[in-house]
Structure formats: C-alpha cells, structure tokens
DNA sequence: AAGACGGGGTA
DNA sequence: TACCCAGTCTT
C-alpha cells in the first residue's frame, strides 16, 4: 500500500472532531489556520469559538476595531497575527467583496498567509493539490525517510516541501494534508511516540535505525535576552489609571500597558526608578512610587527573559497630575484594553474592579 | 540566512 | 531547563 493510503486509513480511524473540519468555507478555515500557527489546538480552540461567535463573517471582523480584535486575541501570543488578520479581513471584505482568493498563489499574497497557510486553505477549501508542511509534517517525514537535514535551514525547507509535494494524494489533497498533520500530532509525537502501534513502523527509517529520538534535526535557536521592566501603576481612589499604547516595533505592538520604565539592572527603590526614567514621568510622581512585588516576576518569552516589577502611585485625582506625556490615557475600564498576560495577571491579583 | 515575535504544555 | 506547537515577516 502507498504511503498516502496508509496515512489516510489511519486518519479515518483516529481523526479528532474539530469545528473547522465540518466546513469548506474559507472564512472559518482561514481564521483557524492563522490562530493555530505555532499554537496547540488545545490553546487555540477556545479563541476560535470566541472569534466565530463575535465575528460570524469576514464582514463582522472587518467592521470591528483593531483594539477589539486584539482584546479578543489577548493571551494567544504572536499579536502580529491578529493585526494581519484584521488587515486581511478588511481587504477581503472591502476590496474583494467578501470573496476569498481561491488559489494557493493568490492566497499567499494575503497578509499573514505564508506557504503553509496558503496550502492549507487551497487544499481544504478548493482541493488544490498543494502540500502543507508544518511542524507535524517535518517530524513525520524526517523520521519516516530518515532525513537529517535541519528542518529550519533554507535547504531543509526546500527539501521537505518537495518531498511533501511528491507524496501528496492529488485526488484528495484535503484529506491527505489533514491526515499527515494529525498523524504527526497524535502518533508521531515529539517526545516518546508509541512506535509499537504505528501503522508506518515497518518502513520507518528512524524506527529501524533507532533515530526516532534524534529526528528531526533543528538549527540552534537564538539566545534569550534579559530585560528589567518596571510598570508604574498610577491610580486614584476611583480606580482611574494611566495606560499607554505600545507603538513602533518590538513585542506587544498595539497592546496597552502601564507607563513603563525599562532599567538595565533591577530597581529596588524609587530612586533607582528616577535614574532609569527616560524623561517619561514627572519626578514628583516617581518619588511616591511604592514597590508592589519585591520579588520580580519572571516572564518568559521565546526570545526574552523579563524581570517585571509593579510600582504603585496613589494620587488625589488623576486628571490633575501635571507634566505627563500626552500619549497617556486615563481609564477606569482597564478590563476593556488588550494587555500582555503579565499585566493581566497583575490586574487580577491587585483586584481592579470590573 | 538569521532574528523577531508569545504563551502554555510537557518531560 | 529545554523543546515544541497546524509559521510569517523583517532585517
């Protein structure tokens, strides 16, 4: 039996039921694919359900504000996905009359849609014979064929894509693509796959040569930089608080936060804050800052290790504070703003009223 | 070609 | 800790 037939037979027995597998409509499939980039199904699923409920059609998503989209995306990470999602929704709704492109080539021109996602939508919705290559596919192919080319090298990306195209069942590219990804996710898992019950075991090079644990190969990742973040929570008795929007480049773009003072070393006193203050906040405000968490919160990202401290400044009335940057906004509805997870956790711990 | 970009699950 | 997850975009 051919490789793709074994895979599809396995899939028909083992496939999970997922909401985006009930349909061939591009909107929910596009939405799910964007959400699942570098994201486990278990983590993405509740967000998918939330989005479909809030935005049943691409027009509803297009009509929403970016702030609203980011708020619903809060906690899922890689926020450029949400910004690109919203951009593309507006493009499809207003420039394409709500009709998604129907080919791999045209889909790939959409913002946020790369090789994988274009292949997924083209095959799932329109049965175009194009092969998906995601983390699951890399792992399954690398092991089955015993390929040790690093999957994140330029050469590896080309090699695995070519191989995937060759293996594709062109009569049912949608089923085949689903099958190989599901196989990687459930059977050919990163750690301790249960090779004893694998339908491909007999021809699997990695199994026969005991290479399962060492494949796939991957180039070393970049090193993690450490940073010290001091968030200054300025509030009055009515729980009005200052927020600023992160703009420009860098993490958490277009999300909100308390005014931030970044320091090269850990700040222990309000004097330390003054030393690191980049002419952002008035000195008389900072002198009143009291440290909320003596032990910094360690917040790990894929490329950063953040040490986070929150400082509290209570004032009489927020709108009487002088010499503040114009970029700050005042709110007593902090729960309506999209914030990074580390700030959301503080908000819940501190007990802002909802 | 290498980095930037989040957060959570797992061993 | 370290690695991984239905990757894409920028430099």
UniProtKB/TrEMBL annotation:
Signal peptide: none annotated. SMART domains: ENDO3c. Keywords: 4Fe-4S, DNA damage, DNA repair, Glycosidase, Hydrolase, Iron, Iron-sulfur, Metal-binding. Pfam families: HHH, HhH-GPD, NUDIX_4. It catalyses: Hydrolyzes free adenine bases from 7,8-dihydro-8-oxoguanine:adenine mismatched double-stranded DNA, leaving an apurinic site. Residues 35-186 form the HhH-GPD domain. Its cofactor is [4Fe-4S] cluster. Its EC number is 3.2.2.31. Binds 1 [4Fe-4S] cluster. InterPro entries: A/G_AdeGlyc_MutY, DNA_glycosylase, HhH-GPD_domain, HhH_base_excis_C, HhH_motif, MIG/MutY, MutY_C, NUDIX_hydrolase-like_dom_sf. NCBIfam families: mutY. Belongs to the Nth/MutY family. Adenine glycosylase active on G-A mispairs. MutY also corrects error-prone DNA synthesis past GO lesions which are due to the oxidatively damaged form of guanine: 7,8-dihydro-8-oxoguanine (8-oxo-dGTP). This is Adenine DNA glycosylase. It comes from Mesonia ostreae. The gene is mutY.
